Amino acid sequence: MKRLWSRRLRRRSTVVFPLLFALVAVTGAWQGDWWSVLLAVIQLLLAAAVATVLVWPDRPPRPARRPTTGRLVGRAADLNRVIGLLGEPRETGAPAPKAVLIHGMPGVGKTTLARRAADAVAEHYPDGHVRLCLTDAGVPVASGDLLTMVLQKLAWAYEIPANPSERATLFRARVSGRRILFVFDDAQEPSQLTELLPNAPGSLVIITSRRNLSPQLNVHGFALDPLPEWEALDLLCSVTGLDGFTAIESSVRLVQACGRLPAALQALGARVADEDADLALLSPESIEADLGRASRPRWATAAVAGIAAEFGRLSRLERDALCLLTQVRSRSFASWVLGPLLRVSAAKSDVIATTLAGARLLEPAGRDDRFELARYRFHPLVRTFTEAHLNQDADLASTCRDALDRLRGVYLELARSALDGSAQHPLPGLDVAHHWIPETSPRAGAAECLAWIRFEQESLWEEVPALLERDRDFALRLVTGFTRPHPAAVTVAARTGWTEITPSPVLAFDYLLAHVRIGLIAGRYEQCETVIDGVRSRTRPELLRGRALMHLTAAEVYGELGWAQRAKRHVAEGEALLGTGGEPRLRSRLEAARQLADPYLDGPLPDDAYWRAMVSATRHHVHHRHRNVIDDLCPVTGREQGDDHRRTMLHRRLAQANWELHDQSRADVGAALLAAARHAMLAVLAAESTGNRWEQARGRLLLARALTAHGRDEDACTQRHLAEKLIADGGRPPPYLMIGDPQYSAPGLVG
To answer: How would residue 157 be classed by pLDDT, with cut points 50, 70 and 90?
Structure first.
């Protein structure tokens, strides 16, 4: 009783003490004259108030509030889709409860989405809500133990049978005829859920798992992908409490480094908010440093907790395979690369890759056009985590060099085979690769083999400097097989001394052709023009095709840059060299370059999907129809195919930034300017991935325009200086970056 009264007094002191003070004051004011009756009444009222506060019964305790779930930003469409799936019947089998499985990689937000979906439909299931995690400290809980936990949550007051089959029968009888909502989180195996799925209609089941178990469980499956760029940026801003324009460059880079995973973004935002850190000072390199430490900071541990848990479930061979795959330079790779890396068979390589993809540690990236094998790629956060583990494993790091040497040998053999092949015999002379690749006879001809070379050029570019020392002819043929620009060409040019090359009659023509290609990719246009002019005197018939390739490559590059006069001149030169005949593939490329150089020229669009989209977009761009440009480039950007995808995404981002700045209605000026700034910064990142400094400058200038219009003159000045430095370092810029362009009039480069 004494403890009870002390609690009450502490809780009600804010009311009791003021009333007591008023009672004392009134008593002290007693003077016994005519108003004594009034004071006595006031005394009685105050005393009654004090007594009422002290003896009034406590209010009944409120039910404990459920912990607040994570932020659900940018998942409205996904939430509606999950709720819609909950209303659809199962595809096969007898009538059963509605069920849906949400699956995706670690940290993508499956649990949060499942909880929000359950909250949205909870009122329709009045007989009970059961939420259960199917793992304990990363270990899957057995089905029998899960039945016991579910029965306890269903308020079963009697003894639970020890026999698992009796427990399952009791569970089904308990839920039969009732409307109960079940949420089963983090399922690992189908066997965990076999007995937990009710066999009678009326209930609702929501399951989350990193693996797609929907075919085995016969339930609807919903694949949850990382957030789109926009929603990921909004999530980071909401967690940090910053507006979209503050440190926009760092925000975009950090979102890309985190792979747009909600868990990683929330952990990073919490670090910024808790430590009051400057978001502009953070960088992807700092994130990689935090993840690479043996003792990670708390935020980094939270960001990769799910990845680390899934990584820990792998076998030793699977962990080694994942670590070694981080050393493959190509952005995507086929499963056969695990053969030379691990010295395993082709069948074993495919099994390992499938297992890693099932654990969501690798992402699917289409199929290999040459070998008809599935291709995979890394999520940025998974790659960073795995590279850190590789650096900490001394034994694996020591064997990494030998594994990469074996893979390089296979790459070079396949490249040589593709260059030597023909339509009838596309793969001659394979001696080593057949040990690792299941079928070495592609269905396509030589043209598709060359397409494979371009698709693998990140890995093949690394071999060019060493090949120039021991097999110069093959290295030159390999370089001339690349028809798409790539940033690695700048590194190759610096390492091989091609940055200072001058035309000379003693140099082989193949060497000059390779130099022109690398120079155009690296943005050294004046040097390339000098080399092209220097080979005009070489009129031998066998060199005419090489000279035509020089002019064709230059016309394509200048056409994409909008350098119309130079592009037209090289188109005319190439057409004169090819004449009326020539290879059909070169003729089609020449026609595409002609239409890129002259947007007003009508004609049939090219057959190649990339050039067809580029020609159509160029025709709209010359009339400033940016919305049409976006529509033309959307189908190409959705296919995720190597350099073509990155370059098309670059042009699309630039068009979207221009549309937000010029064409869109300004009902909400702030939202339009923020959208333009984000698109411009994403264009800068895309230009960096392709090594195009001019488009980097263009994106920064568009970003500066948006910042200036929003009143952030200091940030806009920083972007202008960065753009000017890129232009100064690159020699003569294309015409659209000149001061005379109306989009970049005065002052300086930005209006």
So the answer is: low
